[in-house]
Amino acid sequence: MATGFFTDATLCIGCKACEVACKQWNELPSDGFEFTGNSYDNTSQLSGTTWRHVDFVERESFDESGLKTSWSMVSDVCKHCTNAGCLEACPTGAIVRNEFGSVFVQPDICNGCGYCVVSCPFGVIDLIEAVGRGDDAKKYGLATLHDDRLNDRKTAVQATGGVAGKCSLCFDRQRVGMVPACAKACPTESIQFGEIEELHERAKRRVETLQERGVEARLYGADDIGGGIGALNAFFLLTESPEAYNLPVEPVLPSTRQTMGYAAAAAAALTLATIGWAIFRGDS
Amino acid sequence: MPGLGTSFGRGGATVWLPDLENADCILIQGSNFAEAHPVAFRFVMKAKERGAVIIHVDPRFTRTSAVADLYAPIRSGTDIAFLGGIINFVLQNERYFREYVAAYTNAATIVGENFVDTEDLDGMFSGWNDETKSYDTSNWNFERNDDGTLRRDETLQHPRCVLNVLRRHFARYTPEMVERVCGTPQKEFLKIAELLARNSGSERTTAFAYAVGWTQHTTGVQFVRTAAILQLLLGNIGRPGGGIMALRGHANIQGATDVPTLYDLLPGYLPMPSALRDEGSLERYLARNTKATGWWANMPKYIISLLKAFYGDAATAENDFCYGYLPQLIGDHSVLPTTFAMKDGTVKGYFVIGQNPGASGQNAELVSSAMERLDWLVNIDFFDNETVSFWHREGADPTKIGTEVFFLPGATVLEKEGTMTQTSRVLQWHDKAIEPIGDSKSDLWYFYDLGKRLKALYADSQDPKDRPILDLAWEYDHEDERERAAGEPSALRVLRELNGFTVADGKQVAGFADLAADGSTACGCWIYSGVCPDETTNHARGRIADARSSPGWGWAWPANRRTLYNRASADPAGNPWSERKKYVWWDAQKREWTGYDVPDFPKAKDPATPARPGASGIDAHSGADPFIMNLDGRGQLFVAGALADAPMPAHYEPLQSVIENPLYAQQSNPLLREWKRDDNRYNRSVDPDYPYVLTTYRITEMSGIMTRYIPWLAELQPEAFCEIDPELAVEKGIANGSHVTISTALGEMEARALVSGRMQPLRIGKGQRVHQIGIPYNYGRMVGFARGDSPGDLIALSMDPNVSIHEAKSLTCSIRPGRRAARSAGSIEAPVPTEQQRAYGAGSAHGIDAGERR
Predict the structure, then answer these.
(1) Across chain B, what does the average pLDDT equal?
(2) N or C, which end of chain A has less CB nearby within 10 Å?
């Protein structure tokens, strides 16, 4: 039975507990300490070591009652696509679909080639070049903490200089019946974890409720999102168009383009062959 | 929290957090609820899901505003004007809950003839003594009948009955005035007033939530009082989904006032004996503090049981239960005056535990330079911090500093057992999850060990002055052998002592009703009595939640009541006001109070019981008087004499303000405390050099020293920043993300500019445009991954007259692009004035003084 996330932007209060809980459970290092000046967002984007990321969208608009300020937040994550670009592109078989229907990176098999990075339609997966909070500790002279769970990733990073990283949907927690760290930490139930079909039902009811209240609610990725990707196991409820939350409006699976490319190449080859045949026919 | 205490009887939130879910409307003001209390905010979100209207009134558009249904801007420090405006709206339009107000408040009580209102004295009340700079509050007393009872006019017609006094007092708080003072557009204000009125009454309830945004002002207590008056008028106290949720600034602040770290209170809100009040003997102490009517008639039981807990067998009736061992107050020993005393060389030693005043204290440089003059400093913390490292801060000269510094490693909450009392008075037990790292110890260990060492040190002493140490009951060895071997005391034994026990057999008492005034019982904190009611039960461990008041989840003082004054959820006859808002009611068959919560009322007291003038304690109250702690059993719309500065709130400008008080000639709270000294310089009000409002706050991602070392949190908000509006940014040439310097007469700090449309200038006064600048209070410049200057460098110490709290939420400042100059400090021998100090001298020539009248 496939499991996934239903992330509801209308309930998000932007506390970033999901980001922190994720990093803590998965032993991910910080991405550096840089003030961006972009609203309250200083982690900027999903990366090999940031597997949940809260987007902050500030807007001012004028209507009949004057200035209106809005500030939307939503927690972004790997979408665990039905047809995953990263999985298709992986030459070593490191990226697999596991028994929970999630797209999962096996760090001990990954060779760090990075093909997956350019194949993700959402720009989620990235290479990890650091291995754990030990790196922060070393950098700043704190005591290093050890954790056996890091060993796979550590060995892989040491061997290749980098290893692909992204949300595992807390595979290790799920296997022992626990809810993923981000969903567990979310104080307002903006991140809900469960079986996909059950989540779909909940999401549709939620959209209806919100629409009755006059909120322009829509789902992103609950159904086939197009571009050959299919439905997303981590889907969203948004109140504005996807690009307001830095989500692509029409994501496309690279291999879809590849098929078109092959078809175009085949058509070109056929045309050229036909022309060639037509030209050289007269000589024979 | 005397704002709540003087109004309702107890200084605690009147509701508990999950009850917010039952509200039809929630007004969040003086609090950034979603950011500062994200976990508790789930109940606000649930209320919203159930259709409640969420309103946020705040100087800044925050993450709370983002999810609220309605946001209204307000100039920092003007909440009395805003809420006073709503009180006026409610009274003028007869929108108050008449039956509730008549029965449960002192609306009908008649104020004495000596009382003269701010209306007639242009911002002052009668009784002002210009020599002592204080009020003779007897001028505000109620009129009494010949039998000593309060005179009332149940028809509410008498011109001096509280309701009419209130009506007149708030009449000038019109919507136009609210706009002039607060900068809140009238349309927004009226929308909010209408929503509050519509969502109150027998069928509906509105809850208020506030935090330190209301308290850290020179008029903070009166902010809370204004809210209390409004909630009483709307009939929302003691009812489900109503009340006032006081959100505390830290996890155990409620606990730290219940079993207080405050200088003027003993556990359970018993006053500390004072030499200034003629409380030299137990007899005189009891005579002063035992009230004839209301719950405080029980005072002798609580103080004597406390003395038995402190001094054990040594406390006997013959020696006044060792009352003489208690220290007596000889002045204001709260933290701010003590800081000055340290700086001036009177105070020689300093324990700093669980805070970082070297960075987050107001006037942090004053605190740091005061620490230079100590003989010794003891700091217990998890990490190096700006306080313990004050001697090598920027500009200091360590060779000149003689303070001996002891830095001790503390155990984190996960490394020790014990309770925390959360914001809605609920005690929650937590076990030790892991062993502390290295030599780290719990705070309890340190104090237990210190006590044992002192006892050993004085063991042979015959000097009577050492008896308090030798007679101290000090037996908290752990039940577990391994912990005992490590010297760790038992937090459970401490909690059991707080609960109280019978001296003869050492058995736990079931609750404070079992306490006696004859020395037969001992109790460390009477309001906690009932948490460990027998030898095996610890209710604080409970984690059973249900759909109503969850009596099995932790344990709430007093007596596990979740919603205080819940007698008021029924009408005077004892029936629920409505089916929808049913909570606690009188069961006529069983002849007892029953419902979804523990009744905050004598269980078998018939609602028809008449008042019995002359009876003692709550027997003097009728069966329809829900505020059992108060003398007259009623909610206090008008507080006679219990607060130093006002019986009814009046809007005064902050000590440092951008405008003249539009309401009265009196500019600021006439009783506010200031220290005009060279190391504590104020901005004068209406000073063109400091034209912007400055407000401070904390953010979700950071707390302070605890979070600045956590890389996962530090990356989320890595550096000190300030929030400014785009208009001001353009005017000053400040680019988003660039460095800016913010300054006051006291000093300057630098931060990164976060320019955002969430900040908007306000139109106040006679069309004046005012910009507000917000600065988070989470950073310090010396240690951790997340660093930066703290607004503590900008804020001179000032103090409110009731609770000695500082004003840190509403100030004035100026701002310029670019980074600050290097700091100078280390002023032990010859104080070296900074450039800043030289430039500004003792203050600017412009502007007006706080106490000034125009």
Answers:
(1) 94
(2) C
